Fold:
Amino acid sequence: MGVFHDGPAWSKLARDFENDGLSDPDARDLHLLFGDWLTTTLGRHGLEFADFGCGRSLCLATTPLSGPDAQAAYQRWSRQERKASPMPLPVFVESPFTWPDGRTEMRMMFSTDPHGAAIGTP
Structure:
């Protein structure tokens, strides 16, 4: 969970996942599928993602929470839309992060492997 609370490390990880999602054919399918899903479902709640990428079994995204109702909109998205994912999300981890300048965002990481029960990191 340390990467969730480290601004530069999270940003680097997001770029790495995005690069994987665009260069690896297996990851690209997940990148496109979940990218479309997030764009559509977050958009219904007036939200968008700033960072997004998928590897072969794990995706991550950053959703800026700017505006007075953004936190509530994210909570509505989480309750209403996560269950409508195009594939099961056996593990879904989210954590808010506030930058030193006061910007707030929700960081999420989820497994796309239907047999996954945990997300491991080195």
